[in-house]
Amino acid sequence: MRVTIAGGGLVGLMLARLLRRRGLEPVVIERMRESQYVARGFMLGQQGHPALADAGLLDEVRQMGRAIAPRPDGSCAAIAVEVGRVLSTLAAGTPVRYEHVVTDLVPDAAGRIVGARVDGPGGADVIPSDLVVACDGIRSRVREWAGLATDLEPMAEGKIEWMSPVSTRETFAMEYLSNGGHIGFFSWPEGSFGWRTVERVGREAALAPGLDALTSSWSALLPAAASGVRGLASIEDVHYSEPELLSCPSWWSPGVVIIGDAAHFFGPETGASAGIGLADAHALAEAISTSAGDPDAACRAYEAWRGPAVRPYEMADPGRARLAGARIDPPGPDERWPPA
Questions:
Q1: In terms of DSSP H, where are the helices of 7-55?
Q2: How far apart are CA 199 and CA 231, in angstroms?
Q3: Is the pLDDT of residue 326 over 80?
Q4: For the chain, what is the largest distance between any 2 Cα atoms, rounded to a whole number of angstroms?
Q5: Is residue 92 located within the same domain as residue 33?
Q6: How far separated are the first and last CA of the chain, in Å rounded?
């Protein structure tokens, strides 16, 4: 089966690696330069560990990071790790067309997608494909071109995040606030990352109190994160966003399938987006390898296998519950951000 993967991030690289282990040679299209990536706090949940094991990389990734909630049998709930090291490990030996973008899909006379238009430093090209896999994120252009319906809703609250070069003694901590929001952090050998929910006030208002105020508030609300947040050099190291929740009624149409963040995106409380994305890649690789060159059969099998695993996360997402009308009380006086 000729497979084109739109997106050479974590999920796309994992899918390519697993397909190559099964005897296929997928084409991976990635817009960034080789070794370029967006630095971010990264916690790889247990949902993705079987994919890493299948790829022969689970022990290596464990050694790179720190185990969250380790168990006596050596497994753990998640691994906190520097994301660039995971990406470079997955990319090693995996052919990728870097600095290329998918610009459109190619349909046949019946409307089935049979290829992808690609543009890069060498000019435009068409890649004939039996299946185009969208791994291009929550704003997936491939999903849009394929006409797959989306349910994209803004969360009821905003989010503040920071990433520090200081690794803390504790690996993970999270607390719920009096209004149902939450504050948390995790750390890996090279640094730490924190997040909390706040009112949707916009970036300027959220960062206006400054770094000292944020450090003081964070240290009081989550003492385990104090040394990490004190390692921030500037308020520019703090980021405000207004996250959205994504779900899609169907994950495929003839010739196209969407996985990872292109198919579902969860609130930060789940801590599962990365692990579920890798598990998507694992299930799709297996479906493709067992479908005798029939992409529709592969997609049907994939959706049948993954639906029971993913849909409960979507339904139980605390962020979605708040959107559905769950009561949100005012924050406590010491929890409010920005401060009164």
A1: 10-21, 49-54
A2: 25
A3: no
A4: 63
A5: yes
A6: 59
Q: What is the pLDDT of residues 139-172, one digit of tens each?
A: 999 999 999 999 999 888 899 999 999 999 999 9
b/e burial code for range 17-41 (CB count within 10 A of at least 16 → b) = bbbbeeeeebbbbbbeeeeebeeeb
Distances (CA, A) of 143 to 188, 230, 251, 262: 34, 41, 9, 7
Identify the CA nearest to 222 among candidates 195, 241, 198.
195
Compute the distance between CA of residue 115 and CA of residue 170 in angstroms, rounded to an integer.
48
- Average pLDDT of the chain to the nearest whole number: 93
The pLDDT of residue 230 is 97
Query: Amino acid letter at 331?
Result: P
| DSSP code string of 203-224 | HHHHHTT-HHHHHHHHHHH-GG
Same domain, 110 and 7: yes
Residue in this structure with the two tokens 């149409």, named with its chain if needed = 253
Look at the pTM and tell me if it is higher than 0.90. yes
Buried b (16+ CB within 10 A) or exposed e, 92-112: eebebbbbbbbeebbeeeeee
C-beta neighbour count of 3 within 10 angstroms? 23
Does residue 109 fall inside a structural domain?
yes
Range of the domain at 225: 158-241
pLDDT digits (tens, 9 = 90+) for 87-146: 999 999 999 999 999 999 999 999 999 999 999 999 999 999 999 999 999 999 999 999
In total, the chain counts a number of residues equal to: 340
> Which pLDDT belongs to residue 20?
97
* Averaged pLDDT, 9-17: 97
Residues 262, 225 within the same domain: no
What's the one-letter identity of residue 261?
Answer: D
Which pLDDT score is estimated for 327? Answer: 62
